[in-house]
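Notebook p. 47: complex prediction with adenosine-5'-triphosphate.
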Amino acid sequence: MLPSALSVDPCTRRIPFTMSSVPSTSAGPIIEAENLTKIYAAGRVRVVAVHDVSVAIEPGEFVAIVGPSGSGKSTLFYLLGGLTRATEGRILIDGTDFATLNDAARTRLRRHRIGFVFQKFNLLPTLSAMGNIEIAYTISGRKEPMDRQYLDHLSELLSIKGRLKHLPSELSGGEQQRVAIARALIARPAIVLADEPTGNLDTKNSGAVLEMLARSNRELCQTTLMITHNPEAAAIAGRILHIRDGQIMREEKGLRTTPGSQTASA
Ligand SMILES: Nc1ncnc2c1ncn2[C@@H]1O[C@H](COP(=O)(O)OP(=O)(O)OP(=O)(O)O)[C@@H](O)[C@H]1O
Ligand SMILES: [Mg+2]
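Predicted complex, structure tokens below:
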């Protein structure tokens, strides 16, 4: 059975944010980046990795950022996830400007509001799949106990139910990535940021992981931003932003229909 909270249309409601130190807005983009620039400087060498990028991601959207190697995708990912500071420009997460927060508050906001999925899975090797999911929930800082029914639902959705007691080393790459997605989703973040989530997977497992991201967007209305160099992977999103030389060059529609849009069929 689905948790009751999921029986209403998940896209029409936002999960209330209870952490008092960081206010939540009920409307507006989940992420709003304005004129972001990131310059890496090592000695005399300056690399403009991201140049004057503005992007807004609305609740329920599935956005892909696609571009060739070195185009600035990971840098943009780190900026949007608050993992690195912008040289210029600003980033609002759920209405909160990262730049106004000290390091501790930034970390709290990130843990509470963003679910990360990385190319190399980054599961803790000494913990079972379940342990990895539980510790992510604990770190998220949520006061209420982890919703076991929701975990059951996620495990079904991600087809990892029978694998939760295993260590990462006992799981296939595809399974590890699906556990990493469950770990990212368990605290119901405002947004999931995924950097090359299929980069270490074969074609079959890539397809399964992409399908899981698409399902979590469709069925849980999980706002998702995926970074990829693969145009085929990007096509499953609702909106595709093409990045080159640190700049968003163009935008196109993907296969996914955005909730509330006229053409939506999901
Ligand atoms: N820490 C750093 N110091 C200096 N230059 C960097 C640093 N990190 C990235 N760069 C440079 O910034 C540019 C963008 O790098 P980035 O990692 O964002 O690209 P990417 O699109 O993610 O590439 P890939 O597909 O290979 O992962 C590249 O020219 C890269 O060499
Ligand atoms: Mg990269």
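Notes: The first helix runs from residue 73 to 80. The chain has seven helices and ten strands.
Next step: compare against the earlier run before touching the bench.
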